[in-house]
Design goal:
single chain, mainly alpha, 32 residues
């Protein structure tokens, strides 16, 4: 129940945005 309630919060959108940004930065740095 606690996990489901966490998924309903808009906070996971911010977390997903941070993860996507981190992955984009890693790809940009690793790209030649």
């Amino acid at each position: 129940m606690r996990r489901l309630r966490f998924l309903l919060r808009p906070g996971w959108l911010v977390l997903a945005l941070v993860v996507a940004g981190f992955a984009f930065m890693c790809f940009y740095v690793l790209a030649p």
